[in-house]
């Protein structure tokens, strides 16, 4: 049985993450949450995480351990506004991918669920 990673490959994840971080870097709500001097590193970590989650190499876990997403994001003030801005950037990046629509839907459903789980502050 093939995985999403098998279907779209590393290049699609690279495109997704590159487009996403281009949008994040100019977003006034969420850009301050990202390391200005290491956006490339943040992008690489997201790419490794997504590739692993979707059936690709296990580089993320090998280099960083268990993902523990909520714990890793606990230091950031993530309310629904921040979540919505993150999702807006990611929605545009997913929409731009040149992959089958059913795969976009699967990616989006996961990303939306994960974003909702990261909210850690009341509005």
TrEMBL record:
InterPro entries in alphabetical order: GlbO/GLB3-like, Globin-like_sf, Globin/Proto, Globin_bac-like_CS, Hemoglobin_trunc
Classification via Gene3D superfamilies: Globins (1.10.490.10)
SUPFAM superfamilies attached to this UniProt entry: Globin-like
Gene Ontology molecular function terms on file: heme binding; metal ion binding; oxygen binding; oxygen carrier activity
CDD domains cross-referenced by the UniProt entry: TrHb2_Mt-trHbO-like_O
Cofactor(s) this protein requires: heme
Keywords of the record: Heme, Iron, Metal-binding, Transport
Presence of the UniProt keyword Transport in the record: yes
The keyword Cell wall biogenesis/degradation is annotated on this UniProt entry: no
Domain of life of the organism encoding this protein: Bacteria
Recorded family membership: Belongs to the truncated hemoglobin family. Group II subfamily.
Protein name: Hemoglobin
Originating species: Candidatus Planktophila limnetica
Lineage: Bacteria, Bacillati, Actinomycetota, Actinomycetes, Candidatus Nanopelagicales
